[in-house]
Structures are given as C-alpha cells and as structure tokens.
From TrEMBL:
Cross-referenced PROSITE patterns: HSP90
Protein name, as recorded: Molecular chaperone HtpG
Pfam family, one: HATPase_c_3
Keywords, alphabetical: ATP-binding, Chaperone, Nucleotide-binding
Record's signal peptide: none
Family according to the record: Belongs to the heat shock protein 90 family.
UniProt entry tagged with the keyword Nucleotide-binding: yes
Keyword Zinc listed: no
Organism of derivation: Reichenbachiella ulvae
Length: 630
C-alpha cells in the first residue's frame, strides 16, 4: 500500500505561520504531543468502559524518548491508534480536531471533559523543532493495518504501510539543526516537569536510578543498593482531582511541598470544586507573605484538564489574590489556539467572582471559628484582606465584618468594636471620630506617649498597603478621619476647641518666635508659638497630614501625587509657650545663648523622630557637650 497526495489547506503559508507565530515558545511542542498521546489513551479507556473495545488495555503509559545520534525525539502511546484513513482525516486536514469529533460522538456516553485537545493544531507544533515528522500507528479496530505518515514540513506528505505491531501511535521527530538543544536529557525532563507534571495518564521518560533497601548487615544496620526504575514524570491523580472529604491536612501540606519545595508551610488553603455554571477545580493556598508583594506574584498555576497552561492568571484570579499560591484547573477557561494564554470571556468573569466569594467565605469562617488564632495570623492574612478591600468593592462589603485593626499595644478590633472603643473620647468639635495611627511605633514613641496621656488609642498601620488603606477607611467609614500621631500637636490632632492659657505674654510669644526662627533658619519650616500642656515637649516638629500621607503613598508605590516625591519636606515647628525651657530661652542674657538653647530644643525634637543626621547631628552632639560643661 502506497499513496501520495497533498495536505488539504488553503494557503501555502500555513507552515511558516505555525512555526513562527502559533506558539510563542518552541518547547510547547512536547506538551502538545504528549497531550495528544494522553488523549489517545483516554479515548481507548473510555471506549473500553463503554464496551466498544473489548481487548486487553495492558500498559497504558505514554513514553517519551530521544536518540542524540539519530537526532530524533519519539512520543509513543498505546492508545486508540489510527488507520490510514483516519490519519488523512485528522492530520492532513489541518485544524480538524479528532478530540472535538470524539467528544461530539460520545458526549452522552461518557466524561468528555477528560479529552484534552480541541483545535487539531497541536500536532503541527512538532514542525517548530523538526525537519521531518513521522507517524507510525496501528488502530485499535479489529483487523486494522498499521500505517505510516511522513512529512518534511512542506504541504506534501507520504502515507504507506507501517510496521507497528501493537495498538497505538509513535510520533517521531527528526530534529532540525536550530533545535538540537532539545536532544538533551535535562532539557526534556525540564519541559516534562513543567507542562506534564499532572497529566492523567502516566508519562515515562526512560529510567532513573533509585536507592532501595537491601537487607541488613550483621549489626542490624540497613543496607541499600542502586536499582533502575521507570522514570515516571507525572502524578496522574493530583490532589485537586480528589474529594476534599477524602483528604487530610497532611495531604494538603504534602501537595504544597510538591508544588513549592522551598517555601514555608502555608497558613491555610481553599479547595475549589464546582461543576455549575462552569467546571472548576483547584486548591489555593494562603502563604506566609513577605513585605515585597511583587515577589509573591505569579505563583498560581493554571491547568486545563491537568495540562499546564500558564502561571499568569490575572484574568481568572482577582488582582488581590495573585498573592495566593496553588492550582486552578478548568476546561471552561477559553484559551487561544496555541493554548498559551487566556481569551476574554464571560466564564472567566464568573470564575473570578466565584473565587473571590470562596476566599471571603473561608476568611469569615476562620474568623468566626477561632478569633484568637485568626488574630495571630493577621500579619499575613491582613495583607490579602486589605489588598482585596482596596481593589474590589464587593470584597470590601464582605471583608468589613472580618477585617481587623491592631493598636500599638497589640490589641485587635473589628471595625465596629474599634468605633465603640474610641467614640467616647476621640470625637472633635465637629463630631468627627478621629482615629490616630502610627506607621513606626518605635520612631514615633514620644508622640504616642503624649497621646496616651489623654487616654486616646493609637492604631498601628505600618504595612506595605496601609498608606492606601487609610484613605479607603476614611472614604468608607462615616464621619471618620485618620491622622498620624506626628501630623499635629496632640490638641490639634483631635480639636475639641479647648483653650489652654499661656504663661507668656503676647510680646514674649512674638520674641520667642523670632529667636527660634533665627536659630532654625529653615525656609521649609513654619514656626508658631502655642499654648500646650506644660508636660508636653518644648518643641514639637510635625508634618501636615495631607503632605505626610501623599509622601507615604508615593513611597509605597504610587497612588498619591507623584510630584510630592520631588517637593522638599515641609514641617510645622510648634514652640510650647508653657514649657519651662522656652521661658529659660527668653531669660538667657546673651543672644547667642538664646539661639543655642533654641537650636538645642529644636534638634532634640528632630532627634526624637530620627530626622537629625549628618553635620546637624554632629553639631548637636558637640553643643550638648558644651552645655553640659557650662
């Protein structure tokens, strides 16, 4: 039997398009060919289950091998096989998918979701790396004869009698000179590990040496020997394909270690399992989050019927959940022809919404089940929750019930609890509730202590997203303002319109202002003399809340006015008219001593905030020595 003919296509340019543009990465060829081999095996199993194939199934492993000398890569299966007519139908007519036809034929008789292929183009990815491709196949059909198909990458093919003795198909690639990198054990193993790690049929790539126990010596110590075993590259029954009720915590942790061998154990996980209105399975893990958000991204792997597609899942998974780790598998996520990336689709939006809801439900469950444990994990959980509340309106509405606020004393409150705690004391003259916060409790300790004297509470908002989260809280919480502890003097932070009498006359106040302005000599600082409590600091340096917040947001990655980063820092310098040191400054006999004391008090205020450095710090130290020696 020998026949020659032309492949049925409408353009002579189809092969250059396939080779150069259909697949962005040439290594995809192995994923496509192995997936096709798995498809052929799945079809045979399905026919056997339906009673339409009665022969022995035998060893159904898919084999991948290469011959460096012959420059060939071979993918073999013992699946359904093809007759010469089927090869002409499925291979010569580009984009006629045998998987699609098979699904249509048996859609009422079995699980069509097991069949991977759809477009019928995957086979032709072989020509990205091969000058010539051979198919040697024997159909499962009784009395079928083996067939061989050969094509050199042009539109011509040759089909003849094959020599395969067992049911199934061999695909033999004669690798071109530009692709010799693929004739390498490590390179092929890497591709198989990446794309075929969880295919539903075992994939064998030669053998590997393993250490095996071989009895004991005379002292009872175990002895080992090295043996060769099949190198099975995949786990055909990954955890997400199983029922959550059959799994233990250790199963989930072991699978996480399989996915991310170098990572710390996750905080908890969510098992996704839905079949309506779309099919979706998977496991999402909440990792222990580091401060660098960007390092956490692209850790979710997207599969379609256990074939790895991509780890860029921004359309399927909401932006704020890109920090999660794990696996999502869905046959209903639309892929482009090369199965390399997603296409926009209503199902993608539904899946996105579903995942958001599942995460919110899980967090709410954890919050209600064990509040104490939830609080202990808040430093990690909080980043997800805040990110979600910032970026997703619907998630905010759910999360406001389980989001927590932590104060500088390590106490946790939900939103309603914190409102109750503060509303008696922390309302200003206009009936606005004022939440005070610190971004660095150690550095802002003096301000926090001053605030605590008035029995006010201080929140700790020092996370990578808190500069943005503050604005969201102000927008969402009715008649509520947030002010950083060092944005104003304590009386102005929560302005109750209470007057404190000054021990200085108006003339003395003006004189004190002149002395301090001259001593400070900084065009970016605005000096004022104010009547504060006598136990407050003599000089308090603050940055207005608006400017402070814009700078924090700009420093933490946009969201504010970019120009703020280029503007010089503007400070308010409040001189406490009721502090004894200010009176001492005024009473000093020499002008130079007045300025020296004023500058010393100012530098102390800077020092308390970590703002004193360089030459100014050196001068402060020397001046301190002088004053102590006087």
């Amino acid at each position: 039997m020998q026949e020659k003919g032309n492949i049925s296509i409408h353009t002579e340019n189809i092969f250059p398009i396939i080779k150069k543009f259909l697949y962005s990465d040439h290594e995809i060829f192995l994923r496509e060919l192995v997936s096709n081999a798995v498809d052929a095996t799945q079809k045979l199993k399905q026919l056997s289950g339906l009673g339409e194939y009665t022969g022995e199934l035998g060893d159904l492993k898919v084999d991948v091998s290469f011959d460096e000398k012959a420059k060939t890569i071979t993918v073999s299966d013992r699946g359904i096989g093809m007759t010469a007519e089927e090869i002409k139908k499925y291979i010569n007519q580009i984009a006629f998918s045998g998987a699609t036809e098979f699904v249509e034929k048996y859609k009422d008789k079995g699980d069509e979701q097991q069949i991977i292929g759809h477009f019928g183009l995957g086979f032709y990815s072989a020509f990205m790396v091969a000058d010539k491709v051979e198919i040697n196949s024997l159909s499962h059909a009784e009395g079928a004869e083996p067939a061989r198909w050969i094509c050199d990458g042009s539109t011509e093919f040759e089909i003849s009698e094959g020599d395969r003795k067992e049911r199934g198909t061999d695909i033999i690639l004669h690798v071109n000179e530009e692709s010799l990198e693929f004739l390498n054990q490590g390179r092929l193993q890497g591709i198989l590990d990446k794309y075929c790690k969880f295919l539903p049929i075992e994939v064998r790539f030669g053998e590997k040496e393993v250490s095996e126990k071989d009895g004991e010596d005379k002292d009872g110590k175990p002895q080992y020997k090295t043996v060769k075993k099949d190198n099975i590259v995949n786990n055909p029954s990954p955890l997400w394909t199983k029922s959550p009720s059959d799994l233990t915590d250790e199963d989930y942790l072991a699978f996480y270690r399989e996915l991310y061998p170098m990572s710390e154990e996750p905080l908890f996980w969510i098992h996704l399992n839905v079949d309506y209105p779309f099919n979706l399975t998977g496991i999402l893990y909440f990792p222990k989050v580091k401060n660098d958000i960007e390092l956490q991204r692209n850790k979710i792997q997207l599969y379609s019927r256990q074939v790895f597609i991509t780890d860029e899942v921004k359309d399927v998974v909401p932006e704020f959940l890109m920090l999660l780790h794990g696996v999502i598998d869905s046959p209903d996520i639309p892929l482009n022809v090369s199965r390399s990336f997603l296409q926009a689709d209503s199902n993608v939006k539904k899946i996105n919404t579903y995942i958001t809801k599942k995460v919110a439900d899980k967090l709410n469950e954890l919050y209600k089940k064990d509040r104490k444990e939830y609080e202990q994990k808040w430093s990690d959980i909080g980043l997800f929750v805040k990110y979600g509340m910032l970026s997703d309106e619907k998630f905010y509405d759910k999360a406001k019930d389980f989001a927590l606020l932590e104060n500088v004393d390590g106490e946790f409150f939900n939103f309603e609890e914190y409102k109750t705690k503060t509303e008696a004391l922390q309302k200003d003259k206009d009936d606005n509730l004022v939440y005070l916060y610190s971004t660095n409790p150690a550095q802002q300790h003096a301000f926090i202590e001053s605030i605590k004297k008035k029995s006010y509470d201080v929140l700790k908002l020092d996370g990578p997203l808190d500069a943005h989260f503050i604005g969201t809280l102000e927008h969402k919480l009715e008649k509520t303002q947030l002010k950083r502890v060092d944005a104003e003097t304590v009386d102005k932070l929560i302005n109750k319109d209470e007057k404190i009498e000054s021990v200085l006359s108006d003339g003395d106040k003006e004189k004190a202002k002149e002395i301090f302005e001259k001593a400070i000599s900084d065009a970016n600082s605005t000096v004022s003399v104010e009547s504060l409590a006598s136990d407050e600091m003599p000089v308090i340096v603050t940055m207005p809340e608006f400017m402070r917040r814009m700078k924090d947001m700009q420093r933490q990655g946009g969201g504010g006015m970019m120009m703020m980063g280029d503007m010089p820092d503007q400070y308010n310098v409040s001189i406490n008219a009721n502090h004894p040191l200010v009176s001492k400054v005024l009473k000093a006999k020499k002008e130079e001593n007045k300025e020296k004391l004023a500058r010393q008090a100012y530098d102390l205020a800077l020092l308390s905030q970590g703002l004193l450095e360089g030459q100014a710090l050196t001068q402060f130290i020397n001046r301190s020595i002088e004053i102590s020696a006087e």
